[in-house]
Write a structure and sequence with these properties.
The chain has 191 residues and is mostly helical. Helix content is 53%, strand content 4%. It is built from six helices and two strands; from the N terminus they run αααββααα. It has a two-stranded antiparallel sheet with strand order 1-2. Helix 2 (37-55) runs parallel beside helix 3 (73-91). 37% of the residues are buried.
């Protein structure tokens, strides 16, 4: 599976999860303490627009944290996803890519995108009671990249990621991935 095919599969499945959110679920809590379902959905679409602009060599001028989805959040998500994939296919990985923090090496931004949409896709599925759709291969590939991309300084109180949740090495790759991000994979299982 190529890098872009990996991302395409994850974005397609996350788009399906966005589409599967019912209006009565918007105020439900998620595994991300600062987001309810609606805020997480807005975050997913807002940041996808940032990554799409960067993949095409453009700056994204708006504040992704202020993004509010319109009447068709899944349509917004899928349009940005298609633009993002086209940008990676057209411009490749041998360059620097603009994101909110400035310009970073393209492979790092690509891996950040994989982590963002696999992790938050899982969050959205768990919060809304949808089946987690990601494959063992997707989980394993993104986990390997996350271990290289996510330094310890971004973990803990006031940081974007929690401390690693211990998960057995023989657990499914998605469990190990979300544990690495600081989430408890048991949240995906009915009690």
């Amino acid at each position: 599976m190529s890098d872009v095919e990996l991302l395409a599969g994850i974005l397609s499945k996350t788009g399906d999860l966005v589409e599967g959110v019912r209006p009565d679920q918007l105020s439900l809590p998620t595994t991300c303490e600062t987001y309810d379902v609606e805020a997480l959905r807005n975050h997913l679409v807002g940041w996808l627009q940032v990554f799409e602009a960067g993949s095409e060599g453009r700056a994204y001028e708006a504040d992704p944290a202020a993004h509010v989805c319109g009447d068709d959040p899944a349509g917004e998500f899928r349009a940005a996803a298609q633009g993002l994939l086209a940008g990676w296919r057209r411009h490749g990985f041998d360059r620097r890519v603009r994101v909110r923090e400035g310009e970073l090496p393209a492979p790092m931004v690509f891996d950040m995108t994989l982590m963002e949409y696999l992790g938050h896709g899982w969050d959205l599925a768990v919060a809304t009671g949808q089946e987690v759709p990601f494959t063992e291969e997707e989980g394993a590939q993104v986990l390997a990249r996350a271990r290289v991309t996510l330094p310890p300084r971004f973990r803990g109180e006031g940081q974007a990621f929690g401390e690693i949740v211990p998960v057995p090495e023989d657990a499914p790759a998605m469990d190990r991935f979300v544990g690495f991000l600081g989430r408890d994979p048991r949240a995906a299982r009915p009690s």
